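To whoever picks this up:

The parser on our side crashed when reading a file containing two proteins. I've narrowed it down to the boundary between the first structure block and the second sequence. Both blocks are reproduced below exactly, byte for byte. First block:
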Amino acid sequence: MWLLMLPALVPVLLFSVGPLLYGIGLAFTDARNTRVHETSFVGLENFTDLLADDDFWASFRIGAIWAVSVTVLQFLAALGLALLLNQNLRFRGVARVLAVVPWAMPPVVIGLMWKLVYHPDAGILNDLLGTDINWLADFSLALPAIIVVGVWTGMPQTTIVLLAGLQNVPKELYEAGEMDGAGRWRRFWNITLPQLRPVIVAITSLDFVWNINQFGLVYVLT
């Protein structure tokens, strides 16, 4: 069995596990970009310097706000969209295709597109609001503006997973709820959410990890 898995394991070991272990090893040395191969062991010195750096904690706080906010808002928006797309809409097929468009776009393209939307002089948003706000340069507005982009970017994959979960909920449960006199909200709270719980836990966990690692989008926007 291991021989059959070898062709797949070798690339993983070479391009994933190997660089990971090498990077962990470098963390305990005084390696720099200009001299990676001429290093000496420094133990935990790099980690103590990092924890004592105020810039690190400021970045950590902003990163945590970003990851948590995007994950929560992304889930709520995706759940609402999934519930809508699960209805018998006239153009449901077209709506489902349009809903996944952001998923097909590279992060750099998304960043450049939204940078134009937020442009202080020629941006669509300022034209609609009749303002000249520099959304990405104002510290108090930049983070909320980027969070909106993050939610829009990651919402399609969350919507698809939740929609698949909704379609797997047995119809008999809703019929039984209607017979017992349960309204739409009670059916959602007592039937839909409990049935979706495993899906919700899985997709929000994946979204959180994905949002933590979302560097390219934020870099392009800022």
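<<boundary where parser fails>>
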Amino acid sequence: MKKQAIERNEKGLTLVEVLAALVIIAIIILGISAFFSTSVKTTDTTEKLLDASYVNQRFMEEVYRVTESQEHGAWETELLNAGWEKPGNQERYLKDSSGYYIELTVSESAAGSSLYNILMKVYEDSTYTKLVSQMETRRQG
């Protein structure tokens, strides 16, 4: 009789087995949730980079149009008319658009040269410290 009672008690799961299964499931779920968290951060970063690159490309095309149709001396007037600000005497122009802050720098490629370097940087903060995108080209002036 004792043998039959022992055999009946061995059917089913013990509390230890159930707890072990729950621990394994919890570990798997934590691993998957960490993956999704990283994926969301990467997606946000990529979206920000794409937006900044689009803003950079759009304003670089605007500057390209201005430099294509004007001599170097007339660039400044056209840029100021297009909403760019020029703080100081240097060839540096600032503009903010779509939540980004754009810095445009125009410099001579070499002394006496008619080529000009045009560097456009897009920042995500108004202090111009967090660079998100950058483009550079040369134009005849």
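After patching the parser it read the second block fine. The chain is about 50% helix and 25% strand. The helical segments are 2-9, 15-69, 72-81.
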